[in-house]
Amino acid sequence: VTLFDGARSSHTPELAFSAAGLHRAGELRDRAGTQKELMARPDARAIIICADTPVLGFANGELLAHHDIDLATGLGDIVEAAFLGLDGERPVFGLHLAPSSHEALKASSALKLIDMRSIAIQGLFTPDTVNDIGTAKALFSWHARHRFCSNCGAPTTPASAGWKRVCEACSSEHFPRTDPVAIMLAVDGDRCLLGRAPRFPATMFSCLAGFMEPGETFADAVRREIKEEAGVDVGRVRFLDCQPWPFPSSLMIGCLAEATSTTITLDDELADARWFTRDEVRLILAGQHPDGITCPPRMAIANHIMRAFAEGVSGS
Ligand SMILES: [Zn+2]
C-alpha cells in the first residue's frame, strides 16, 4: 500500500474541461514586450468567444477552434485579449469579441457559433481543445462581469495578459474567480441517493450538488447540502474527482458520501429524490431503466460519480 494508491496522475479523460493541455507560462503574463512578440508570431493561434459563445471556423471541412490570429483579430471589435499559454512552442490566446459582432459572425459562412455545452456533449474536439475553449469562456465571462471595482466602484482595467483587473482609483487588484461546488452521491450500502431538480427534464435524476460556503471544507458542504436538500445524514465523505465547469466559472468537486440515515425529507430545491439500487443505476447509465429514468451525459462529473458507484467503488 502506498500513499497514492487509487489516485490519478492526470485528468480523467471522459470529463469535459478537465484536460490541461496548455502550459500556462504564467511568468510571461507580466512581460508586455514578450506578449506583443508572442501575439505577432505567425504560428500564434486564438480561441474566439463572442457573447459567451465559442466562434469556430473550418479547415479542410473539419471544425476548428484555434484560429489564425491575424484572421481572428479582423473579425470584430476585440473587448479583451488573454494569453492562455503555450502549446509546445505555439502561443495560444483567447479573444473576446464585442457582443455587437454576434449577428455578423453568425451570418458568416466561414464561421460556426456553437454553444459551449453542445461542444462538450457532442465531443466535437479533443479534451485539450475543449479545455482551452472552456478556459477562455470562463475568463471572459469574469471580465465582462467585473468592469467595476468591488472595493470602490471605479472602472477597472485588464492587466497581466488578461489574468487580473486593476483599479487605478484605489489600487485594488482583482483576480478571476472560481466558484467551488460540492457534487455528491450519498451511498447506503447497495443503494444511492439521486435527486431531480425542478429545472431537469421529467425523467432525469442526478447527484445532489450545491455551492460551498465560506468557512466550509468540501466535506462539510457535502454533509450540509445532503441534509438540507434531502434530510439525509452523512458520515464519512470521500473525494473522487474534480471538474472545471465554465457555466460560468464553477469547479465541481465530486464526492461519495456515506449515509447514516435513510429517510428522505425534500426541501424546495428538489422536485424528487429517491434511493436507487446499484443495478438500477447500471440500467440508468445504460439508458435501459424500465421507467425511462435518465442521467446527465458522460462528459459531466455526475455521470462519472454514478459510474464509480455502479462499478463498485464503495463510500468507505
Ligand atoms: Zn477601486
Give a quick set of tags describing it:
binds zinc ion; seven-stranded mixed β-sheet; 316 residues; 8 helices; six-stranded mixed β-sheet; single chain; alpha+beta
Number of strands: 16
Individual helix count = 8
Largest sheet: 7 strands, mixed
| Strand and helix order | HEEEEHEEHEHHEEEEEEHEEEHH
Contiguous uncertain segments of 5+ residues: none
- Percent of residues in helices comes to 10-25%
State the separation between the terminal residues, measured CA to CA: 16 Å
Shape: globular
Strand share of the residues?
Answer: 25-35%
Mean pLDDT: 94
Radius of gyration: 22 Å
Broad structural category: alpha+beta
- Small molecules bound: zinc ion
Explain what you see.
It contains eight helices and 16 strands. The protein has 316 residues and is of the alpha+beta class. The strands form three sheets. Strands 1, 2, 3, 4, 5, 6 and 7 form a seven-stranded mixed β-sheet that branches. Strands 11, 12, 13, 14, 15 and 16 form a six-stranded mixed β-sheet that branches. A hairpin with a 2-residue loop joins strand 1 and strand 2. The protein is globular, with a radius of gyration of 22 Å. The two termini are 16 Å apart. Bound molecules: zinc ion. Zinc ion (ZN) binds next to loops.
Gist of the model:
It contains 8 helices and 16 strands. By secondary structure, it is α+β, with helices and mostly antiparallel strands.
